[in-house]
From TrEMBL:
This is Gamma-glutamylcyclotransferase AIG2-like domain-containing protein. Signal peptide: none annotated. Pfam families: GGACT. It comes from the Eukaryota.
Length: 137
């Protein structure tokens, strides 16, 4: 079983949104690495203050992620269970390939994909695919 979680929004270890669930979720991480997942676009609804990745299947689209790992399998499984509960029925957890920029390697990680029905006229595309750059044009 893979013990890595690719996070792109309020579950990122470097999240800057002030989401109250973030500090307890990232507590105890053993490592965090920046990467990219291709074939997805990142959207943001300002009323909700969290993003969602939608599958496009286009290799030109990508989402910046932080790949999180915890020290033990048990801790990882507990965090994955927490994330499943937070993401709920609006997201599906998938295994994806993540390109790690610092090493030019590709690894597998769990990744949450939103249902396309979540996109409405309030949603804005984050062109960079990076949650931390969501306020840039």
């Amino acid at each position: 079983m893979c013990h890595l979680l690719a996070t792109y929004g309020t579950l990122r270890d470097d999240n800057d949104s002030g989401a109250p669930w973030n500090p307890p979720f990232i507590q105890g991480i053993a490592s965090a690495t920046t990467g990219r997942v291709t074939g997805y676009r990142l959207f943001f609804n300002p009323k909700l203050n969290y993003p969602f990745a939608i599958s496009t299947g286009d290799a030109n689209d990508s989402v910046v992620v932080r790949v999180l790992a915890w020290p033990t399998r048990e801790q990882f499984e507990q965090k994955l269970d927490e994330a499943d509960k937070m993401e709920g029925v609006d997201y599906e957890r998938k295994m994806v390939d993540v390109f790690i920029e610092s090493s030019s390697n590709t690894i597998q990680a769990h990744f949450y994909v939103a249902r396309s029905e979540l996109i409405d006229d309030q949603c804005q595309l984050i062109p960079s695919g990076d949650w931390l750059r969501r306020h840039e044009s």
